[in-house]
Amino acid sequence: MILYYNGPASNHGCEAIVRATCRLLGEDLTLASFSPELDRRWGVDSAVRILDDRAQALKKPSLGWLVYALHHKLTGSEELYTRLTHRRLFSRVKKGDICLSVGGDNYCYPRTEVLAHYNRAIHAKGGRTVLWGCSVEPELIKDPAIARDLAMYDGITARETISYEALKAVNPNTVLVSDPAFLLDRVDLPLPEGWVEGKMIGVNASPLILQSGDGGLILNAYRALIEYILQNTDCSVALVPHVVLSDSDDREVLKMLLEEYRHTGRILLIGDHNCMELKGYIARCRFFIGARTHATIAAYSTCVPTLVAGYSVKSRGIARDIFGTEEGYVVPVQALETGSELADAFAALWGREEEIRQHLQRVMPAYCANAWAACAVVEELVRNRR
């Protein structure tokens, strides 16, 4: 079984999906990796075999380049380019192989045509494809080309109901599951200096949300949030990075906040760790406010009351499935008007802290267990392969 089109482990959400998928499906898995060195750095190779899926250049004037150039001139399509530059993966696919597109939210963003190239190339080799633990912006499905691509998957596991309802309309082989990372193991490392047990509020921010609206206003919203915590509670703040990509590093924003409030003696920055270790820190927070989806999944799954600084369908959908509504549990950062919304939302939830924790304790066992439902999709394909 092959996992493909996932980001590097320096996005610890991508790492969490792979590790949790290995727990669901067993050890006989291969990860087609765009960044083998990064996946090895965070130990993903201990859970799955790594196949180098970095693009291989087409050298001028090689036969491959000439064939591609002619094909592109005649059709305008980049599909042959994808097949040739990622031939290490496609040459491995055999008839009956099951290949899981594990990128999660890839269909929430532009450039989905590359996903269609992979989908068709795998089917051309006789493989079967599953869109695994995904979220999809419903508006994108109105594009006929994307709808046709989604219909081609042999199975889809959608991780929240907004995406499920949209996907079911174009592919009947869609099931509703929980994100596999709800089953991710946690590792509890020694707590850092300054951590006050029972009195830490975790905060995660990312450059991505600063690009989703008025960046200055969003940053001010985080300042207002931290100031509210420091002035109205006896808790301290743990800044938790969850993505450390070179072009999207949570630490850039978090270090700015650390320096602004370091003088209070009530704020600290957690260093970079693998996803299981980060989950260990998040699980020991009293409350969590996060932008990265898998940071908030780490909180939800360990029954930590959570507020999401949301920017996509996945944030809204997961919160709706857990609480029955996203209202009050997700603050869409694109729609901030005054900069006080994040602090106001936290204040409202802080007053219901124990109620929310008890709700999570009631619903999380069954909600997390629903991640196992995705296995049935794969098992059915395995049976039909024989």
- What is the CATH topology of the largest domain? Rossmann fold
Summing up helix and strand content along with how strands pair, one would put the structural category as alpha/beta
| Total E-strand runs | 15
Global Rg = 21 Å
Largest sheet: 7 strands, parallel
**CATH level-two architecture of the largest domain:** 3-Layer(aba) Sandwich
What percentage of the residues does DSSP assign to strands (E)?
15-25%
Question: What is the name of the CATH class of the largest domain?
Answer: Alpha Beta
Strand order within the widest sheet? 3-2-1-4-5-6-7
Straight-line distance between termini: 15 Å
What is the CATH H-level superfamily of the largest domain?
Glycogen Phosphorylase B
Average residue pLDDT: 93
Query: Helix proportion of residues, in percent?
Result: 40-55%
